[in-house]
């Protein structure tokens, strides 16, 4: 089984967090066109829980909590809302500092972890299924560790209990990496942040370049200092010791693209095995490969992601 231990892999992960190299294109400077991904479905209700924006769609069936990833907003989940809101009460979160929301405070991950748990308690949600992308998936795992009896299921799309490539780093080295990341992202002026979001989406985010540019316009609405703080929190995190406490079934959706994974010698089965290894100890774990797809699998393969979620819900 391939393990991402070498310096090149760590450099790639760091580049992914900060947006990678700047693109040679000047597309980011062009006059903006209407963004086809910016339109959001009108929620039935909108409220806040400890600084986290919550938008509710639908009002029946097992509740779903949808949590976007780093620098993302509810626009990530528009297809998912359409697919499930007729049969489920869908609560879509936007985290502090993202998508034009007010800046995140100190220790944003811990604060959001508490906020999601407060949402479940305040609304008396009965065994909700938490669906998270990337950072959102990590947050879902954390809540399931804290409140195992209250969570009915977890779907994590490319979100793991420890940042891949850092799993063998000692805590002090991981903390140093986190602080470098916080500084590098957090000090970026808006124009540079926008350019690096474009580079990230083109190389890590999605397959289609026009889609990448449109989505980068949306992630660029986030506050760089908040994005840096969130990234640092995630890099210092290691949830693996608590995975054994999770009682709910967990589905890990693994995006796979030959072009990207071949650089690390990973076949689809090899990447699935690597994710299983990082999730080792999770009592009820399922792993599903979605291909061809990059990090934002819900845009590259929307039908496959929705089908995987629907199948998972049918097993609960």
Helix content: 40-55%
What is the tally of beta strands? 8
Helix tally? 12
Query: How many independent structural domains?
Result: 1
Main CATH class:
Alpha Beta
CATH superfamily placement: Alpha/Beta hydrolase fold, catalytic domain
Tell me, briefly, the overall form: globular
Mean pLDDT: 91
Radius of gyration, in Å, reads 18 Å
Through-space gap between termini: 31 Å
Low-confidence stretches: 1-28
Would you write up a description of this structure?
With 316 residues, the protein is an alpha/beta fold. The protein has one domain (7-30, 48-314): Rossmann fold, CATH 3.40.50.1820. The protein contains twelve helices and eight strands. It has helices at residues 7-18, 78-84, 108-122, 135-146, 171-186, 190-205, 209-219, 224-236, 258-261, 268-278, 297-300, 302-314; strands at 45-49, 52-57, 64-67, 90-94, 129-133, 153-157, 250-255, 285-290. An eight-stranded mixed beta sheet has the order 1-2-4-3-5-6-7-8, sandwiched between helices. Helix 1 packs across helix 6 (190-205) and helix 3 packs across helix 4 (135-146). The longest helix is centred in the middle third of the chain and has 16 residues, at 171-186. Mean pLDDT is 91; it is low at 1-28.
